[in-house]
Design brief:
258 residues, 4-stranded mixed beta sheet, 3-stranded antiparallel beta sheet, globular, alpha/beta, 2 domains, 11 helices, 43% helix, D-Maltodextrin-Binding Protein, domain 2
Length: 258
């Protein structure tokens, strides 16, 4: 039925009843979602779940209602990490002057610059051959994508830095929601939240299965890194994109969540 942006619009107009989409696709609709693409915003997947399931997630949900969407549940979109064909990345110094494919997004380009590396935006389908031919040194994504894309075949060094965790939203058309009785609304909201628990477990299972598969095929996973220098390097990125007092307060509240 189209790209995520198309299906969100169809849900807003009531053409379809429900949609699941990445927070990144909602950036132009609910500006607060842009902050969730900041690198190293979340310390871990558990931290992200605690943020989204708490008061911050509830507040964000109310912001969607003004855009004809009812936020029902937050799914896990995975954690993106760096992988490359050249060497194990064990410190921020190891990234210096390396070329990484990133999505066409200014935040990600600035993130790579802050880390001392070179960002190369390109279509996802070109990554395999570009690593293979040395056009780029590597890319960044989660374990299931690293596995299913075949990138582990040409870039065997995977550094588990988890620099980006972007939640996904299950939302319902407000016009469809308003047709339901209060009792059915409660049932649907409870079911959506239960589905998030199931989805997160299924995602964790898939991550583990993909990790085991690439390791068996010869990939080297770098786990023991000091992430603090990576986080500290993001100062200029946060200064550029977190510019209002409201945004600064939201970022602080996210970081303070246990």
């Amino acid at each position: 039925m189209g790209e995520e942006k198309d299906t969100i619009e169809q849900t807003q107009f009531g053409v379809i009843d429900m949609v699941r989409a990445s927070f990144g696709t909602f950036n132009d609709i609910v500006p607060e979602t842009q902050l969730f693409s900041l690198p190293y915003l979340f310390r871990s997947e558990d931290h992200m779940h605690n943020v989204m399931d708490g008061p911050i997630g509830e507040e964000l949900g109310r912001a969607f209602e003004d855009k004809d969407l009812v936020a029902l549940a937050y799914y896990d979109g995975g954690a993106r990490s760096f992988y490359n064909s050249q060497k194990p990345i064990q410190s921020i110094e190891d990234l210096k002057d390396m070329k990484f494919r990133v999505m066409q997004n200014d935040v990600f380009v600035d993130m790579m610059s802050a880390l001392g590396a070179n960002a190369t935006p390109m279509p996802y389908g070109e990554v395999y051959s570009s690593i293979q031919t040395g056009v780029i040194d590597g890319a960044e994504n989660n374990f299931p994508s690293y596995d299913s894309s075949g990138h582990a075949e040409v870039a065997k060094y995977f550094t588990l830095d988890q620099h980006l965790m972007v939640p996904e939203l299950v939302a319902m058309s407000k016009s469809s929601w308003d047709k339901l009785s209060p009792e059915d609304q409660t049932i649907l909201r409870d079911a959506a939240r239960n589905s998030a628990t199931v989805q997160r477990q299924l995602w964790a299972d898939q991550e583990k299965a993909s990790e085991d598969k690439v390791v068996a095929a010869g990939a080297e996973i770098v786990r023991d890194i000091d992430k603090q220098p990576f986080i500290d390097a993001m100062g200029p990125v946060y200064e550029k994109y977190v510019t209002t007092p409201e945004a600064q307060d939201l970022v602080k509240r996210i970081q303070d969540t246990q």
